[in-house]
Amino acid sequence: MVKGCEGTMKCIHCQGTMNQGKAPIHIDRDGCHITIDSVPAWICGQCGEPLFEEQEVEAVQEIVKAVDEKCRLLRQSAQGYNDRHQGL
């Protein structure tokens, strides 16, 4: 994000004006799919590119970390089930 001469924020991709709004985030990791529909962001009025501030990025990272841990536990549980029931 770049600040213009008049203090408005400009998009780093197209130099369009950034406006406060909300944008979705989609994350795919190790077979887990996370979608958060409405995250506060700066949205370019010209190209639509979202820019998330540090606070929102940190919150999303915490969510991903928690989901990663639960997915790891599920994979371990599934592997244990397969090991116990192999050859039945």
Task: Report what the structure shows.
With 88 residues, the chain is of the alpha+beta class. 35% of the residues lie in helices and 35% in strands. The chain is built from one helix and five strands; from the N terminus they run E-E-E-E-E-H. The strands form two sheets. The protein has a three-stranded antiparallel beta sheet with strand order 3-4-5, covered by helices on one side. Strand 4 and strand 5 form a beta hairpin. The chain starts with a strand and ends with a helix.
On the 0 to 100 scale, the average pLDDT is: 85
What amount of the residues lies in strands? 35-45%
Strand count, sense and barrel status of the largest sheet are: 3 strands, antiparallel
Helical stretch tally: 1
Radius of gyration: 20 Å
**Which spans of ≥5 residues are poorly predicted at pLDDT below 50?**
none
Widest β-sheet, arrangement of strands: 3-4-5
Q: Gap between N and C termini, in Å?
A: 59 Å
Order of helices and strands: EEEEEH
Number of strand elements: 5
* Share of helical residues: 25-40%
Briefly note the structural class of the backbone. Answer: alpha+beta
Overall body shape: elongated
Structural features:
single chain, alpha+beta
Short description:
The protein is α+β, with helices and mostly antiparallel strands.
SSE blueprint:
Blueprint: E1 2-3, E2 9-10, E3 18-29, E4 32-44, E5 50-51, H1 54-84
Antiparallel strand pairs: 1-2, 3-4, 4-5
